[in-house]
Design brief:
Tetrahydropterin Synthase, Chain A; five-stranded mixed sheet; 2 helices; 23% helix; 33% strand
């Protein structure tokens, strides 16, 4: 069984590795949606796979580090592609969330997204 917590953030970034003239070379911003998916068996005492209150608190701490920021300046996100943002979120959460199964990051206005399962 799976449960999830979503959070949103608005941020700016650029891709210095793409050629000048590429639409992503210059500074631009997006509204992002991140979904943190946990998987496991339901605990018979709590009725939970994980306490979503604790998951939400961890996600809100990440949101504070990303929301209205220039992502290239966030440690570990020097190249802030969807792929790298998903891996970064995964790496921030895995130590505290052993049931973490997947992180999905999407930009709904572009209909782009990236699911990441740790590999």
């Amino acid at each position: 069984m799976e449960i999830y917590q979503e959070f949103t953030f608005d941020a700016a970034h650029r891709f210095p590795g793409v050629p000048e003239g590429h639409p992503y070379h210059g500074l631009h911003g997006h509204s992002f949606v991140a979904r943190v998916v946990l998987s496991g068996r339901v605990d018979s005492k709590t009725g939970f796979i994980a306490d979503l209150g604790e998951v939400e608190a961890r996600c809100l701490r990440l949101r504070e580090r990303l929301d209205h920021k220039y992502l290239n300046d966030v440690d570990g996100l020097e190249v802030p592609s969807l792929e790298n943002i998903a891996v970064w979120i995964w790496n921030q959460l895995t130590p505290d969330l052993p049931a973490l199964a997947r992180v999905e990051v999407r930009r709904e206005s572009c209909r782009h997204g990236c699911p990441y399962s740790g590999t």
